[in-house]
From TrEMBL:
<feature type="transmembrane region" description="Helical">
    <location>
        <begin position="16"/>
        <end position="35"/>
    </location>
</feature>
<dbReference type="InterPro" id="IPR050469">
    <property type="entry name" value="Diguanylate_Cyclase"/>
</dbReference>
<dbReference type="InterPro" id="IPR029787">
    <property type="entry name" value="Nucleotide_cyclase"/>
</dbReference>
<dbReference type="InterPro" id="IPR043128">
    <property type="entry name" value="Rev_trsase/Diguanyl_cyclase"/>
</dbReference>
<keyword id="KW-0472">Membrane</keyword>
<feature type="domain" description="GGDEF">
    <location>
        <begin position="204"/>
        <end position="335"/>
    </location>
</feature>
<dbReference type="InterPro" id="IPR048435">
    <property type="entry name" value="MASE6"/>
</dbReference>
<dbReference type="Pfam" id="PF00990">
    <property type="entry name" value="GGDEF"/>
</dbReference>
<protein>
    <recommendedName>
        <fullName>diguanylate cyclase</fullName>
        <ecNumber>2.7.7.65</ecNumber>
    </recommendedName>
</protein>
<dbReference type="Pfam" id="PF20966">
    <property type="entry name" value="MASE6"/>
</dbReference>
<dbReference type="InterPro" id="IPR000160">
    <property type="entry name" value="GGDEF_dom"/>
</dbReference>
<keyword id="KW-0812">Transmembrane</keyword>
<keyword id="KW-1133">Transmembrane helix</keyword>
<feature type="transmembrane region" description="Helical">
    <location>
        <begin position="41"/>
        <end position="60"/>
    </location>
</feature>
<feature type="transmembrane region" description="Helical">
    <location>
        <begin position="72"/>
        <end position="90"/>
    </location>
</feature>
<feature type="transmembrane region" description="Helical">
    <location>
        <begin position="96"/>
        <end position="111"/>
    </location>
</feature>
<feature type="transmembrane region" description="Helical">
    <location>
        <begin position="118"/>
        <end position="137"/>
    </location>
</feature>
Length: 345
C-alpha cells in the first residue's frame, strides 16, 4: 500500500487547491476584462486582476512543490474578501452576491470542518451586514431576498458540513484499519513505514529496538492460540506503559519494533532493560493460568542516511546476537554507536 494513500485528505486538498486556483484564475481574468473595458468598474476590475495573478502563481507553485498549510486558508480568505467587496461595491442587480452560496462548499473542501465552519459563519455575518446597509436591493423585494438567501445559504452550509464531517470520520476509520494491528492495537508494518518516512521528521538521536518473545511457540503449543493472542495483548500493553516516548509496532508474530526518538545510548538502553526486566518479573494472567515470559532485545542507533530497512536490519542483527548468547538480554553495538557519533561530528 502506498504511504501517500494514508493521507488521502491532504492529497485531495492539494489537487483541489491546484485546479481551483487554475479555474478561478481564468474566471477572475474574464471578469477583470469585463469590468475594466466593458462595465468601467475599475476598482473591482483591479481587485479581480490581482486575484487572478495570485491564483495563477499558486497554481504554478502547487504543480512543482508541496503546498504550505496557510495557502488554502489564504485562498479562501481572498475569495471571501473579493465576494464581500464586490457585493458592497456593486449594485444588487449585478448578481455578484450569488457567489456567496459557493463558498461554504469551497471552505469545507479545502479547510475541513473546523475552519470551514468558522469561515462560513464569518461570511454569512459580514454579508448580512453588507446587504442590510445597501441603499437599495432593487429589483428584489427585501423580504423575499433575505428569506431565499438565508435558506439557500444555510442548506448549502449544512450539507457541506455533514458531508465533510462524514468523510473525515470514515477516512479516520479506514486509516485506523490500515495502520493498526487489530489484535494488539499497536501499529503494524505499514504504520511503522509511515511513522519513519512521514511523521518522524528529525531522525537525529533515533534508536530502534527490535524485541522477540523467547520460546513463545511453547505458549501456543501448550495453551492454544487464543491464549497466545491474549498474552500478546498484555505484552503490547506493557510495552506502551513502559515506553515513555516514541512508538511501538507489531512487525509479525511475537516480534515488536520500538522507535525511541531524541534519545541517547544510556537512555535507550535503560528503556530496553526496563522492558526486559518488567516482562521477566510480570506473570501474565490469562483466565486461571499465570504465564511468565522473557524477551530478547536488539538495540541499534540510527545512522544518518539509512533507510527503514537498513535501520531495522541493524537492530535485527543485535537481536540475533542476544538470542545466540542466552536470550533474555539486551544487545547493543556500542562500537556502531561510536562510529555514528564520529560520522555526525
Amino acid at each position: 500500500m502506498d504511504i501517500a494513500a494514508l493521507d488521502s485528505a491532504q492529497v485531495l486538498r492539494e489537487n483541489l487547491l491546484k485546479w481551483i486556483c487554475f479555474c478561478f484564475g481564468i474566471l477572475a481574468s474574464v471578469f477583470t476584462y469585463f469590468n475594466l473595458f466593458i462595465n468601467d468598474f475599475y476598482s473591482l476590475g483591479i481587485l479581480e486582476g490581482v486575484f487572478a495573478i495570485y491564483c495563477f502563481y499558486t497554481f504554478n507553485y502547487a504543480r512543482t512543490r508541496k503546498f504550505q498549510t496557510w495557502q488554502p486558508l489564504l485562498l479562501c480568505l481572498c475569495i471571501m474578501l473579493l465576494v464581500i467587496l464586490g457585493t458592497y461595491l456593486a449594485v444588487v442587480k449585478s448578481g455578484l452576491f450569488v457567489w456567496t452560496f459557493t463558498l461554504p462548499v469551497l471552505f469545507y473542501l479545502l479547510l475541513g470542518c473546523k475552519r470551514g465552519f468558522y469561515l462560513s459563519l464569518l461570511l454569512v455575518c459580514v454579508q448580512t451586514v453588507v446587504l442590510m446597509n445597501k441603499a437599495s436591493l432593487a429589483p428584489f423585494p427585501e423580504l423575499n431576498l433575505y428569506l431565499n438567501m438565508s435558506f439557500s445559504y444555510l442548506s448549502i452550509w449544512v450539507i457541506a458540513h455533514i458531508f465533510e464531517a462524514s468523510r473525515a470520520q470514515f477516512s479516520e476509520r479506514l486509516e485506523n484499519l490500515a495502520l493498526f494491528d487489530p489484535l494488539t492495537n499497536t501499529g503494524n508494518r505499514l504504520a511503522m513505514n509511515h511513522y519513519f518516512e512521514v511523521e518522524l521528521v528529525d531522525k537525529i538521536n533515533l534508536f530502534i529496538m527490535v524485541l522477540d518473545l523467547d520460546y513463545f511457540k511453547k505458549v501456543n503449543d501448550e495453551f492454544g492460540h487464543d491464549v497466545g493472542d491474549q498474552v500478546l495483548v498484555e505484552i503490547a500493553t506493557i510495552l506502551r506503559e513502559t515506553l515513555n516516548k516514541g512508538r511501538a509496532f507489531r512487525t509479525g508474530g511475537e516480534e515488536f519494533a520500538l522507535f525511541i526518538p531524541d534519545s541517547n545510548q544510556q537512555e535507550s538502553y535503560q528503556i530496553a532493560e526496563n522492558i526486559r526486566v518488567g516482562l521477566q518479573s510480570t506473570a501474565i494472567n490469562v483466565g486461571e493460568r499465570e504465564i511468565s515470559l522473557t524477551v530478547s532485545i536488539g538495540l541499534a542507533a540510527y545512522r544518518d542516511g539509512d533507510s527503514l530497512k537498513q535501520a531495522i536490519k541493524a537492530a535485527d542483527e543485535q537481536l540475533y546476537y542476544a538470542k545466540e548468547h542466552g536470550r533474555n538480554n539486551v544487545s547493543f553495538d556500542s562500537q556502531q554507536y561510536s562510529a555514528k557519533l564520529e560520522q555526525v561530528s
